[in-house]
Structures are given as C-alpha cells and as structure tokens.
Amino acid sequence: MPKVLLVEDNEMNRDMLSRRLQRKGYQVLLAIDGQQGIDLCRAEMPDLLLLDMSLPVKDGWQVASEMKADNGLSHIPIIALTAHAMADDRQRALQAGCDDYDTKPVDLPRLLSKIERLLGRVG
Q1: 10 Å Cβ neighbour count for 58?
Q2: Model confidence pLDDT, tens digit, residues 97-118
Q3: Which one of 12, 44, 50, 115 is separated from 33 by 20 to 30 angstroms, measured CA to CA?
Q4: Cα–Cα distances in Å, from 92 out to 6, 63, 74, 83, 101?
Q5: Which CA distances in Å does 20 have to 29, 37, 103?
C-alpha cells in the first residue's frame, strides 16, 4: 500500500482528501505545517508528498526546496496543491522542487492520475 503524506493546514481539506485517498488504497499520513511535513518525511519516508503551498511555520515553497536539497529526501516526489492558479504559480512550484502541480479545489481523478504516474503505477 503506497504511503502518501498530505501536508495541509485546512482541516476540512485535509479530512476530505485523506478519506478519499484511503478509499483508493493509499496509507495517508497527515501534517498541518511545513516543518511537521519535513519531520514526518524524515521519520516515515512516504512514497509521495502532497504539499499545500500556503502553510504555517514553513510554506510549501520552502519545504519543497529543503527536501530537494536533502539527499535523504530528494527522491520523494512532491505534488504542489494550491489555490494559486496564476500562470506562473505552476512554474514557481516546479522551480521550488515540486514534481507536479495541482489546483484546489482538488479534482480527484486528475490528482489520482498524477499520483499514479509519479509512483510509476501507470505509463
């Protein structure tokens, strides 16, 4: 069962998305701020990180940059989740180290296809 870490400070978004992912067969770990997300990545080594970009303590941009600079964490794929849907936000997320980008509200089939692609479960 693939392990996904969801770093999301909004309780409603966190609960909704974690339940939907669990129903699809993922083990879901939760963090509510950027530093907790990094700490949980080190402790649990998830297969993938779903990262809200607007977080307390350390925002998603900082988390992605730190993780990609850390040899022990840089292999973990990161999908940025953000309500920021401006044209340059996707590029900014990719430059910070995210492997993909998705907008909120989350379209679950679209997000699942990105997760499965990054986990190597589909072509």
Answers
A1: 17
A2: 999 999 999 999 999 999 999 9
A3: 115
A4: 20, 13, 18, 14, 10
A5: 13, 20, 17
Instruction: Spell out the CATH class of 3-118.
Output: alpha beta
Q: What is the number of other CB atoms lying within 10 angstroms of the CB of residue 30?
A: 17
Measured CA to CA in angstroms, residue 59 lies from 25, 55, 113 at distances of 28, 4, 25
Cβ distance 118 to 48 under 8 Å?
yes
Q: Which SS3 state, helix, strand or coil, does residue 10 take?
A: coil
Do the beta carbons of residue 90 and residue 109 sit within 8 Å? Answer: no
Total-model pTM: 0.95
**The predicted structure's pLDDT at residue 122:** 53
Q: Where are the domains of the chain?
A: 3-118
pLDDT digits (tens, 9 = 90+) for 15-59: 999 999 999 999 999 999 999 999 999 999 999 999 999 999 999
